Amino acid sequence: MRIAFIDSGIGMLSTAAAVRAARPDADLVLSMDPDHMPWGVHAPEAIVGRVLAGARAALDASGTAEDPAAAPDAIVVPCNTASVHGLTSLRAAFEPRIPVVGTVPPIKPAVGRGGPVAVWSTVATSRSRYQQSLIEEFGQGVEVVPVPCPGLAEAVESADPGAVDAAIAHATERTPPETSAVVLGCTHYDLIEEPISEALEGRAELFTAAGAVAAQTLRRLGVPPAPSLPLTGTVTVLASGRPAMLPEAALAYAPGQALTRVPQP
User: Fold this and answer.
1) 126 and 52, same domain (yes or no)
2) Residues 6 or more apart from 95 whose CB is under 8 A from it?
3) 251 pLDDT exceeds 60?
4) Are residues 197 and 219 in the same domain?
5) Is residue 98 part of a domain?
6) What is the mean pLDDT of residues 220-224?
7) pLDDT at 129
8) Three-state SS for 74?
9) Can you give the CATH number for the domain in which 152 is found?
10) Which of 57, 80, 158, 251 is the most buried (most CB within 10 A)?
């Protein structure tokens, strides 16, 4: 079983690690795009191009030209921005042969806990019609407050503790004090759950998408979780299509550390 992950940077790590924990036998292909990151600053059509390029690089790395049977069994997009703009094109290109799984901010389960709910996301996503439509669809009468987090994803990507703390403080100040749940609407934020929770003084439950995306991936593949299987799966890393190692910043986070302990092909 081979699963490809497409993202501009290390925001994919939490989802990839969740899949690794559920299926230690799966081969993972982590297709990052450091040459063009962050994707959020590009026009939608450019983001579509980068997402498709990342997927094709993952297929090439799997040796599909020589052996079509080696193609990934699933393509996962653990990035909200890439999912918004690229899923339709990815599915048109690869489904039904290869299922494509996207990422949606977990607003619905957060609202189910009660409110008020804050949605932490990038500035662009906070302003997007996409996020507003999710709030309208799943809000169910609960107060849901968008909280833009300027610089937070970039700080996580660079593993700069000072910048991370400053960006978290900025977002915390803009989160209503009565908030009972915070949706982490960017997968980069999953990597810093602990400092976010500490900044919020534990008053709000955090909701992330990684576990749900991992579970949906296995459902699309028609396989159950099997966390007790031997660790036989490998990890392949691509940097804008080039063979690479995980970036050094990935080692600052538990999911990155876990993935570095996986055999390389």
Assistant:
1) no
2) none
3) yes
4) no
5) yes
6) 96
7) 86
8) strand
9) 3.40.50.1860
10) 80
Structural domain including 215 reads: 2-103+211-260
Helices (H), the chain: 13-22, 44-61, 80-94, 107-112, 123-126, 129-138, 152-158, 161-173, 193-199, 210-221, 254-260
- Rg of the chain in Å (alpha carbons): 18
Helices (H), 95-209: 107-112, 123-126, 129-138, 152-158, 161-173, 193-199
In whole angstroms, how far apart are CA 131 and each of 3, 107, 120, 137, 145? 27, 9, 11, 10, 11
Catalytic residue chosen out of the listed positions 186, 191, 209, 214: 186
Amino acid at position 143, single letter: E
Q: What is the pLDDT of residue 128?
A: 84
The catalytic residue among 79, 111, 156, 214 is 79
37 domain-assigned: yes
**Do 6 and 99 share a domain, yes or no?**
yes
Q: Summarize the confidence of residues 152-174 as an average pLDDT.
A: 96
Work out how many domains the chain is built from and give that number.
Answer: 2
Judge residue 263's burial from the number of C-beta atoms within 10 Å of its C-beta, 0-12 exposed, 13-18 middle, 19 or more buried: exposed
CA distance 210 to 12: 9
Which tokens in the block code for residue 77?
């997009």
**180 pLDDT above the threshold of 60:** yes
pLDDT for 64 equals: 57
Tokens of 163: 């910048």
Q: State pLDDT tens for residues 22-73.
A: 999 999 999 999 988 887 777 888 889 999 999 999 998 876 555 556 689 9
In a domain? residue 265: no
Together in a domain, 98 and 32: yes
Reported as a pLDDT band with limits 50, 70 and 90, residue 188 is very high
Q: Which two tokens stand for residue 21?
A: 């924990």
12: closest CA among 97, 83, 71?
A: 83
Q: Is 149 a catalytic residue?
A: no
